[in-house]
Design a protein that fits this description.
Strand order of the largest sheet: 1-2
Shape: extended
Radius of gyration: 30 Å
Strand content: 5-15%
Helix content: 40-55%
Number of strands: 6
């Protein structure tokens, strides 16, 4: 009689499902949060809000004769007023009754989909408002640079940074008066945008490291040695950023973060380059280790 095989016991084996759902896309609302935390956010009606502004200084400065001289005429500050029109935004989330019923207990699902989707919707709504705040005030999230069939390519910058996957976008002419129709932003387009962004950041980081090393490393270090030092710094910088991203779920390093770390690298390398003056290739190796250790103590 043949031995029992694993395929005969599959029906007895429970399926393990991880009870955590990591976030794998950007959903920041930094600018919106900064504005709301100021404490001077006003509640308005449907009428325009008036904002008085002091736009120009007043007063006439000059010398005069202190022995009874004429002080002359003066002037005053100039004020103006700005008006803000209320704009109403909404964020629609839709689920079926079966989704609610199928996930409303721990025995059925690892998360209550209805409650989680409401929370997700509020966070995504905040991310949308944050993107709108970064426009010119006209709601334009990007400009189309070229059209190929049904594919619309957006100009960079900002590219597709102000839109999110699945968002329905209205297409207008250059005067923002003629609505040419709607379009959806697909996931593959966002993936291509992120890939291009990452490649751009990596290329810029390597160039900046090379410029920093060219201006800070002592004389006598050849181009090959400088390139190896730059490669080591780039790979360790990338590993450090990846580690920080892993320690902060839902957060991924931004271009600003890359530039910040690179700026620190330049500062540390500059100090290290001035303090150590190796005169041969053996000292060059020690110099490289000092530079790397100084960089990642930042």
């Amino acid at each position: 009689m043949a031995q029992m095989q694993n395929t005969q016991t599959i029906a007895l084996q429970p399926e393990k499902v991880r009870d955590k759902v990591p976030l794998l896309y950007e959903r920041d609302d930094v600018l919106l949060s900064m504005i709301q935390q100021r404490g001077d956010v006003e509640k308005v009606s449907s009428r325009n809000m008036r904002i008085p502004l002091q736009v120009n200084p007043g007063g006439k400065a000059g010398s005069y004769n202190a022995d009874g001289g004429d002080l002359g005429r003066g002037s005053g500050s100039v004020y103006d007023v700005a008006q803000i029109s209320p704009i109403f935004f909404r964020f629609a989330v839709e689920i079926s009754k079966l989704v609610e019923y199928s996930t409303n207990a721990r025995e059925k699902a690892i998360e209550n989909a209805a409650k989680r989707e409401v929370a997700n919707g509020m966070k995504q709504f905040r991310a949308f408002l944050d993107k709108v705040l970064q426009t010119a005030g006209n709601g334009v999230l990007g400009a189309i640079g070229s059209v190929s069939g049904t594919t619309l390519t957006m100009n960079t910058p900002p590219g597709a940074a102000l839109v999110y996957v699945g968002q329905t976008i209205q297409i207008y002419d250059t005067t923002i008066t003629t609505n040419r129709g709607n379009a959806a932003f697909p996931a593959e387009a966002y993936g291509a945008f992120e890939s291009a962004t990452n490649e751009d950041v990596a290329r810029g980081t390597r160039e900046a490291i090379d410029r920093t090393l060219s201006s800070t490393l002592p004389e006598g270090i050849g181009e090959g040695a400088r390139r190896r030092i730059g490669d080591d710094i780039f790979h360790e910088l990338h590993a450090t950023l990846s580690e920080q991203s892993a320690q902060s779920p839902g957060h991924r390093p931004t271009r600003q973060a890359d530039r910040l770390h690179l700026g620190r690298a330049g500062t540390r390398l500059g100090k290290s380059g001035h303090h150590h003056q190796p005169s041969n290739q053996r000292k060059c190796g020690r110099q490289r280790q000092r530079s790397r250790s100084a960089l990642f103590r930042a």
